[in-house]
Amino acid sequence: MAGLELLSDQGYRVDGRRAGELRRIQARMGVFAQADGSAYIEQGNTKALAVVYGPHEIRGSRARALPDRALVNCQYSSATFSTGERKRRPHGDRKSCEMGLQLRQTFEAAILTQLHPRSQIDIYVQVLQADGGTYAACVNAATLAVLDAGVPMRDFVCACSAGFVDSTALADLSHVEEAAGGPQLALALLPASGQIALLEMDARLHEDHLESVLEAAARAARDVHTLLDRVVRQHVREASVLLGD
Amino acid sequence: MKETPLSNCERRFLLRAIEEKKRLDGRQTYDYRNIKISFGTDYGCCIVELGKTRVLGQVSCELVSPKLNRATEGILFFNLELSQMAAPAFEPGRQSDLLVKLNRLLERCLRNSKCIDTESLCVVAGEKVWQIRVDLHLLNHDGNIIDAASIAAIVALCHFRRPDVSVQGDEVTLYTPEERDPVPLSIHHMPICVSFAFFQQGTYLLVDPNEREERVMDGLLVIAMNKHREICTIQSSGGIMLLKDQVLRCSKIAGVKVLEITELIQKALENDRKVRKEGGKYGFAESIASQRITAFKMEKAPIDTSDVEEKAEEIIAEAEPPLEVVSNPVLWTPGTAQIGEGVENSWGDLEDSEKEEEDEDGTDEAIILDSIKMDIGVEVSNIGSQDAPIVLSD
Description:
Number of helices of chain A: 4
Subcellular location (chain B): Cytoplasm; Nucleus, Nucleolus
Shape of chain A: globular
Oligomer: heterodimer
GO molecular function (chain B): mRNA 3'-UTR AU-rich region binding
Order of helices and strands of chain A: EEEEHEHEEHEEH
Mean pLDDT of chain A: 90
CATH superfamily of the domain at 29-283 in chain B: GHMP Kinase, N-terminal domain
Strand order of the largest sheet of chain A: 1-2-3-5-4
Radius of gyration of chain B: 34 Å
Distance between the termini of chain A: 56 Å
Largest interface: A-B, 36 and 38 residues
Shape of chain B: elongated
Largest sheet of chain A: 5 strands, mixed
Main location (chain B): cytoplasm
Pfam families (chain B): RNase_PH (PF01138), RNase_PH_C (PF03725)
Family (chain B): Belongs to the RNase PH family.
Order of helices and strands of chain B: HEEEEHEEHEEEEEEHEEHHHEEHE
Number of strands of chain B: 17
CATH class of the domain at 29-283 in chain B: Alpha Beta
């Protein structure tokens, strides 16, 4: 769409947000009764569902069992109706494999795998509607699901995407802003220590602007952390009320 | 074949060396290995050697109908294959994770950064566009596949010439290389990947890890930049925890390295162009030196041997001569004799050996009492009479 202004003169983006503003996040934990942990998150129009099974015995070949840690297995799938045009291949294509690998890398670093040697933790993420920031939504949903399952983690893993338009860093890109072809950065952060679990960037960005984009993404990830923290506390409060404490 | 596991002592040795800022091949922490670029006889074919890691790149083109949602743009297709000759661990079914990661990184680095002008590949909008296919094959794996592959891809693309096409109204004429000289692709910039390996939870970092260093590393950070200091791709992998200033520092180092590598590439392309224009011989056969039987050569590492003689003499002077062993046969009972008690153990500390000397007189008596049961030294049977000297028999 040529001529579409991503950032107007008054500083408003296409959907009326400011440069550093996140989209509305709504999340719920414990959506599936039979899974060990599950969560659903909506970031603007991006909707993702995450389910966690584990820790349980290694399925398949016992040879894959690690003697001192748990194995984290992540699978990413996006529904065929999730994008504007119907997708033909929901699993097994290179992008889904790569997403699965990246999620695994993120969570292997965050989950305390030493506490469950020779076992396996499965994380399945399904994207129901993709409107930009799918990796971030998947990570946030998976964090909530892992917390719901009671698997011990070092810290929340909060992710957010960021972009750069007209010398301003934008946080939490929507699909329109991503498709415009500018630089996009996806960052997964452990908020308490500020450590970056995963950093991924596409398209050309001059080195001098890297710091401002990283800063914007880190700030947005910390804001996401505040929201997710609130959701978890709310869920625990509800659960304890049901238990009669 | 499954990969040979790395032994614990080798792992510890490598990590200790890295802590002392030493690398096994003598490089500094930010040094690249030798990069050698050679071209084949066809346009678009090249081999890049990064130390011992070797990647072959080949570009080919074809006229196809464009994608429905991008009717005026050509199609770029990248494919990296890990050949089974590269490492024993690479087998047709076993490579998937690494392969997916490398392929996706290459795609993002070269396609999303728009290094090639895809609009110029359009012949007839909506009907015929050029499909450019870049095939990369890893021929030998000695670490840092992604850097070598990105260099090979961009060099092959710069070297490639596509057939000339002219459109007159509705007529499209495709000229063969004999009719009209083939045309180079229009390349905006050259993105090159630089890999950083992290060790000991991010305390130490190395540029261009070789295969051993890759096995002991915690994680990898790949930054793709071009010579205008624009970052094309950043990818962190392996589960390391990074800090923001580490990333910024790496991007600065990457900028410097990319400039050097880009210069090298330009020089290599220029050389090849000159050779072809002057009608000289070109191709892979020319790039292999004819005096060598094999294509691999062990580089001589410079070692300073000027003070070896002095050091050796010092060591010899300080060392004590070994104790002389005096054969002193002792006759215990008729029929048994004992020669020696074995050589003195020189492994123990000086303190221990002093103690031993004090106790030696005491232990002799103990030996006399237990000579029948103990089995020290050599027991020799007495062939002759008691008075005759004891003769050792075989």
